[in-house]
């Protein structure tokens, strides 16, 4: 079921990888190293691309890895990612201007990402995006807790970010998720929140529409207009 956008949007939960930043180069390079170091056949680039955005453990499970192999690959991946991949990343052109426009329009902005929270906060701070978020780095909500290679689902992160928004005075009926993958749409819908899908991210053709995105935006400027009109 596709949820409709509210007539007035006051709070926005923003995905990070593929939405705010193009993080694929660093993630994919570190995944290659991680699989190789763990002694596991390295998937094709097309498969590795699908790892960008969703919870990492879920992606490992999706390609058929055992918990033990997933743990080994994730451990090796994180070792390389912390040294080389974290900032092999760039802000989507035009997004800082869109964030500033949204802030000027009175929209409260928070981040909700499946990326581990300590990584997400480093990325947000590195690129100066915290200046646009309610509470600065306190406005960044990411995954926490890993077991058997599985990072908690995006719906848990959205729940925490939504609770923060409500504590700030949000009406859940005036809150929107912005993301580039189907798991963003599904996680938000689980809490009754519609999603605007951004088409510059890592979704396969038709993925966002099939997941039930309420609307699509092709550029950050188009997104800002959609959220404030």
Percent strand equals 15-25%
Radius of gyration: 17 Å
Element-by-element helix/strand order? EEHHHHEHEHEEEHEHEHEH
Number of helices: 10
Helix- and strand-based class? alpha/beta
Shape: globular
| Average residue-wise pLDDT | 93
Unreliable runs, pLDDT <50, ≥5 residues?
Answer: none
With strands numbered from the N-terminus, the spatial order across the biggest sheet is 5-4-1-8-9-10
Helix content: 40-55%
**N-end to C-end Cα span:** 24 Å
- Profile the largest sheet: 6 strands, parallel
What is the number of beta strands?
A: 10
Describe this structure in words.
- The chain has 229 residues and is α/β, with parallel strands linked by helices.
- Helix content is 45%, strand content 16%.
- The protein has 10 helices and 10 strands.
- It has a 6-stranded parallel β-sheet, with helices on both faces.
- Strand 9, helix 9 and strand 10 (215-217) form a beta-alpha-beta unit.
- The longest helix has 19 residues, at 67-85.
Task: Spell out the blueprint of helices and strands.
Elements: E1 11-14, E2 21-22, H1 24-37, H2 45-49, H3 56-62, H4 67-85, E3 90-91, H5 95-104, E4 108-116, H6 117-126, E5 140-143, E6 146-147, E7 150-151, H7 154-167, E8 175-179, H8 182-190, E9 195-198, H9 207-211, E10 215-217, H10 220-228
Parallel strand pairs: 1-4, 1-8, 4-5, 8-9, 9-10
Antiparallel strand pairs: 2-3, 6-7
Quickly list its features.
229 residues; alpha/beta; six-stranded parallel beta sheet; two-stranded antiparallel ribbon; 10 helices; 10 strands
Compact overview of the structure:
45% of the residues lie in helices and 16% in strands.
